[in-house]
Amino acid sequence: MALHANSDIRAFFEPRTIAVIGSLNEWGGLGYTAIKNMRQFNFAGRIYPINPSYKEALGLKAYPDVSAVEDQVDLAIVITPKQKVPGIIDQCAQKGVKAAIIVSDGFAETGESGARLQRQIVEISHRSGLRIMGPNTIGTLNTANGLVTNPYFISYDKIYKGNIAYCSQSGIVGAQGQPLKDQAYPISKMCDLGNKCDVNEVDLLNYLSQDPQTSVIAMHIEDVKDGHKFIDTVRKVAARKPVLLLKPGRTERGAKASASHTGSLAGSERIYDAAFRQAGAIRLNTWREFWEIPRVFINQPLPRGNRIAIITFTGGVGVASVDTAEECGLAIADFSPATVSRLSKLSPQLARNPVDLGPIIPVTDDPLPVLEETIAAVLDDSNVDCVTATLYASSGAETPVYMDIFDRVMKNVTKPVSFWIYGTELGPMEDLSRQVQGRGLPAYFDIELAIKALATAAHYSRVKSSLNQGATGILNTRNS
Amino acid sequence: MALHANSDIRAFFEPRTIAVIGSLNEWGGLGYTAIKNMRQFNFAGRIYPINPSYKEALGLKAYPDVSAVEDQVDLAIVITPKQKVPGIIDQCAQKGVKAAIIVSDGFAETGESGARLQRQIVEISHRSGLRIMGPNTIGTLNTANGLVTNPYFISYDKIYKGNIAYCSQSGIVGAQGQPLKDQAYPISKMCDLGNKCDVNEVDLLNYLSQDPQTSVIAMHIEDVKDGHKFIDTVRKVAARKPVLLLKPGRTERGAKASASHTGSLAGSERIYDAAFRQAGAIRLNTWREFWEIPRVFINQPLPRGNRIAIITFTGGVGVASVDTAEECGLAIADFSPATVSRLSKLSPQLARNPVDLGPIIPVTDDPLPVLEETIAAVLDDSNVDCVTATLYASSGAETPVYMDIFDRVMKNVTKPVSFWIYGTELGPMEDLSRQVQGRGLPAYFDIELAIKALATAAHYSRVKSSLNQGATGILNTRNS
Q: Are A12 and A131 in contact (CB under 8 A)?
């Protein structure tokens, strides 16, 4: 457990100067690749390559060790064989480096000899005040300054700026493992905590709760270093920002696998689970949910209740989606008499929830006003707290016209909407999805996920208001 | 309920001659589009456009009505205003047409006047022996002969041939609503039953059970016309081919929505659910599962038990996937001592399930033999019944080399494998997915789905052996 008085981990995300300590071989050297990645994403600070065998790398002057750098070094990225790491960390401490990300692996995660090496590092950290992330991590990413400490090949050159912080204890949550450009996730920060020998989930939550770019926190964790502290921190953060947790250990065997992967005790994970929920953390079940559900919290108000309206172009999907809504804690809204009357004027078939526009569109001379009035009526209904609407994509579909309707209708609306996109070609579906996301609205290829996202928002809405009223008793609500 | 002695519905899927009765307007006329679609997919039979206002359409001679066609007509596709439908169906009956698909809507699904019209059609059908599919349907699709009765614009020109039959009570399961080309679903038949005024799910199951091109049946149904007959039929079919059901009504409100959509009784749906499972039908929960899970049954043996091995390149995903496996009824296989020893020779870290190759690959001079030996060892283990393996896709990844390994290793293996594909760009991920599917192997972008697919195969393996032993008592096992 870390004992730093200094709980400021800003240098991991907002360094002005970085030393990259590792191989500068231009054919895949990890130090070289880390620098290349930062260049690719236009990192705003100064970079110092460190390697005694090189005079320069990527046009930058290289230094034999970190003490040779004349400048103050905020962050060191350490990517060397593990045996060298303690010595390098010692040099960083002496130089007054604020933060070090240890990418190297082979420490506590591999057994006792690695654990011994890791303890040496922790001792230096405690003695000197140098904060350490890792080992066994790809570190951090910050879209505000182009920081990406990842030393692996990244095949794209753009990461979308936004307000989601994705945190993990695994390298899978990184630019080398996700189609971040194609999926256009609106990201503020990313972080892989690795072995958490010093910086842990509590430090990270505290930092992200204060980060003005972050409005929702998606966190994958396998173990928790200090359960009580974590729960206190979640309670504090969740009162302001949603904290979504993907945490293995829902099953006995899962808890055991997780414990064996992290070296923690399995028992404690199960015990803390109820406490996590009690503190206001919202549990996710799949990686798809981890990546996709946070979108619902960006640029949209929280639902005031759990009553959903569903608008589809296909009755079969609408009917099947009722089960999904109910199973994840939403209620199918009963339309008000005013809405029933407004929809009945368009067609008596439309005046029920889920609304199926399928039979109406083909027999209407100009379906667009029908579509617009339907969406407006549903959104206006005070019995409706949130809406899942459908968009159809094909190479022939008139996307801009659809989106204009939503822009008009949603202008004065204070309810969240999620979109289900379907169609006949993946290309246009992906284009349309990016257009919708570009407006800050969440779009999904699975209607179940579109509904689950709103259910998560409704759940967080209850959590937030309870936490802000100081009441925690009702937090232990269904979270499926 | 239909009372046809003739339960042969072959003419709906294997007609040699088709009459298309509807608008032949070349700017979106539905009859015109239906013919155009059949041309696009190279329908092997003869097509007769029927419309008194046209002399020809798409280079084909048009006839004023079906009686004017000199040829025998196997199948009529009726796409006219609803009022005209009974007259046309009468003409078809007099002509000796075997089967009619009524695309037109506005019948029982819209209220009493539509229901009256529908009863007229049913009377003609019962009197004459003319079998009717619909109304309110997009009909059938058969990849063996290029038949596609869908009268809506389809933006692509290829549907992959294979062994999955997708059936539905909704137009969403159709070529105008799914990216069938991009997703490369290996399809034998598709069918939308619509209002099921005559041909119903029992007829369809009987036909598909005999269809040599179909080896797995995915069926979306909202109601069942004759519960006892359906259950008897499922039991018979499921002994030979998997019957996967997506059926709304898991929740009270879902059952109510389903009943209101189809005009059936909600109560009966809930009552029959346990009986469906008892008969060997396997219940699915989402549309994604409906489309993706059948792939696991194509070209692969069934698992002999429920013990899964998981191979990943990232420990975090491996650990999280243990919960998924356990939750859907699989057990994490305990490797045999021989496998533990074989894997330990590569690295002691590899000798546990899930196997995480992540830390090994980067520090190995030539990772490919390590990958191959790992996969071979896991597949050889008699404690392992099925395997989920990982593939990484990026613009730089060596896909052919990976796939060569699997081709070699799987040559003599009689266990099913599913693949989880991840990577940094959707394009290469989708390409790789199609390559894997092209080998008849199931690939998924979500590891949870890859595992769920194998769980479904393991479940069906138990169902099949029970049904074939005549024992039904153990069928009511967990099916999450």
A: yes
